[in-house]
Design goal:
Rossmann fold, six-stranded parallel sheet, three-stranded parallel sheet, 12 strands, glycosyltransferase activity
């Protein structure tokens, strides 16, 4: 068996799901086009991650985005020929790994690559014209490549309803839903404090700017945990009650979540592992009523939902939200719906279902592997 992930450069939600896959299949060979042992805190070092030629460029979480056009070709270059079963963990390109005749490929999808599909306008907006034109061409090629490689996946498993819908709309592929696993045992209920928290990669599409501005306007204490390219802009928007910790260790995350007032989430998340981690800590979640929050947050029991991602709505939601009105035990019970055990059972069902699924075409075996630049077949 082979396990394949888009990139292993840091520990975010997708990488934590991949860690759970590695735990479920301890004898599987692990692949990723690029890998950084320090960035992933050595969590994969015992597995001997097999990488692509892009590894020669020493990628990290700060520079890997510059290699964007080369990842499809890199994942196609990974040699899967010796395996019976391939499980890819994909939010962008790992579903494009090439399977051969007689092999089966299950893709656990976190989302079709957002900047090629549902957020492609965000990827080009505000850029100089030559850069915008180049990006539009690359992303157009990417969509063609995505559709072509999606035909060769035997079974898709989506991490939530919004991803299931996007797979159908973008790739024309049906899928079952299996929510990601959360290590609820890592978290303990503590004493609730006054500070609200954000736990996220700091990217513009996460809409953390709305949370920062609302809390600054109201004088609400807020701690932002995480790092990313939007950090400088968010700092410029923050008032005196907002603090930024950068990326923090798991132990500190657990401590801060157990002692917070609540976690705030303002993006349309495909699932939202951080919100489940907060609930596992006995704390409620204040989240945008969209995407994974509709599946993970139980209004009135483990949190509350607000209607739109703008500062005015956020201020109103914060003004009516009482963190002390939520029972920590009810929050914890909500989180336990997404345990590793439930994930293991669901994934086993997906693998077993292969017996009743005809093998997908294997057209790319005979085509020169050129990533985005080979002749389109979709």
């Amino acid at each position: 068996m082979a396990l394949v992930h888009d990139f292993l450069l840091s520990l975010r939600g997708g990488e934590r799901v991949f860690l759970a896959l590695c735990d479920l299949f301890p004898d599987a060979t692990v692949y990723s086009p690029v890998y950084n042992e320090d960035g992933t805190e050595g969590r994969f070092s015992a597995r001997g991650v097999t990488t692509s030629y892009l590894q020669n460029l020493r990628p990290s979480s700060s520079n890997f985005r510059g290699l964007l056009p080369f990842y499809p070709r890199a994942v196609e270059s990974l040699d899967m020929s010796e395996f019976d079963l391939i499980i890819s963990s994909s939010s962008a390109w790992s579903h494009g790994v090439i399977a051969h005749e007689g092999q089966r490929h299950v893709c656990y999808s976190h989302n079709p690559f957002r900047y090629a599909w549902d957020q492609r306008l965000d990827a080009t907006r505000g850029r100089p014209l030559p850069v915008r034109k180049a990006l539009e061409r690359i992303l157009g090629r990417w969509r063609s490549w995505d559709r072509a490689v999606a035909r060769e996946v035997d079974v898709y498993v989506a991490n939530g309803e919004i991803t299931r819908e996007r797979l159908a709309r973008s790739f024309g592929r049906s899928s079952s839903v299996l929510h990601p696993p959360v290590d609820v045992g890592r978290f303990r209920t503590g004493h609730a404090g006054e500070r609200f928290v954000v736990l996220s990669e700091l990217m513009p599409h996460k809409r953390i700017d709305v949370i920062v501005q609302a809390c600054s306007q109201m004088g609400v204490p807020l701690t932002v945990m995480g790092d990313g390219p939007d950090l400088r802009r968010l700092r410029s928007l923050a008032g005196d009650t907002v603090e930024f910790t950068g990326r923090v260790a798991d132990s500190e995350v657990a401590e801060r979540l157990s002692g917070c007032a609540a976690l705030i989430q303002c993006a349309t998340e495909e699932f939202g592992i951080a919100s489940v981690e907060a609930q596992a800590s006995g704390r409620p979640v204040l989240a945008l009523a969209a995407g994974g929050a509709l599946e993970t947050v139980m209004p009135g029991q483990s949190g509350a939902l607000f209607a739109s991602a703008d500062v005015e709505t956020m201020v109103s939601a914060l003004g009516s939200f009482d963190p002390g009105s939520f029972d920590p035990a009810a929050c914890r019970a909500s989180a336990e719906r997404f345990s590793k055990g439930a994930f293991a059972v669901g994934l086993a069902k997906a693998v077993d279902s292969l017996d009743g699924v005809p093998m997908a075409p294997r057209e790319r075996q005979s085509v020169r592997r050129r990533g985005l630049w080979r002749p389109a077949t979709a």
